[in-house]
């Protein structure tokens, strides 16, 4: 059993840590609080395949690797499990299920088994419908972002923060020197990624 002195030191250290976190604006999650959170539902192979195929439909392989080669599916799974709050995670998972059910209803087979042209068509229609729904005037309550839009956000964010997206698809320049409006650009040159400056904070709402 720890001594009173040891317990007192631990309590003081914890208080100091909380004061520092408050000063820095950092939220802390204690082990007890984390244990009380609902554990994310494990992803099945079918779910992983669906997410991978949607991501690859959004950013396909061309002369550089696409979303799958960049590790975007694993990034999305990590974000949903570790970054989304429980309500956001449930909304995403429900949207994923509805997306998969819709593809099967429209084409008679799972999204992963569709020809690429059919995948492009189905996802494009889902994205267009989601955009229209978000643009429609609401009744004062902000609706959650539809699944198709969340997938696009996650895929683009994951791809362009990956090594492949930031330094192969684009040219990585972590510390740009100066603004040059007349910088030479030849056909085949890669645009600079500027990932530290150009990506807006990701929103799961």
Work out the strand percent: under 5%
What is the share of helical residues?
Answer: 55-70%
Average of the residue pLDDT scores: 78
Taken from the alpha-carbon principal axes, the silhouette is: globular
SSE topology string: HHHHHHHHH
Q: Return Rg in Å.
A: 22 Å
Which class best fits the helix and strand makeup?
Answer: mainly alpha
* Number of DSSP strand runs: 0
Uncertain residue ranges: 1-15, 20-37
- Kindly, what is the distance between the CA atoms of the first and last residues, rounded to a whole number of angstroms? 46 Å
Number of helices: 9
For the report, how would you describe the main beta sheet? none
Question: How would you concisely characterize the structure shown here?
Answer:
This protein has helices at residues 4-24, 31-36, 45-58, 72-83, 86-107, 116-135, 147-160, 163-169, 195-198. It is mainly alpha-helical and 205 residues long.
Walkthrough of the structure:
This protein has 205 residues and is mostly helical. It is built from nine helices and no strands. The chain has helices at residues 4-24, 31-36, 45-58, 72-83, 86-107, 116-135, 147-160, 163-169, 195-198. Helix 3 (45-58) packs across helix 7 and helix 4 crosses helix 7 (147-160). The protein is globular and about 50 Å long. The protein starts with a helix and ends in a 7-residue tail after the last helix. The relative contact order is 0.11.
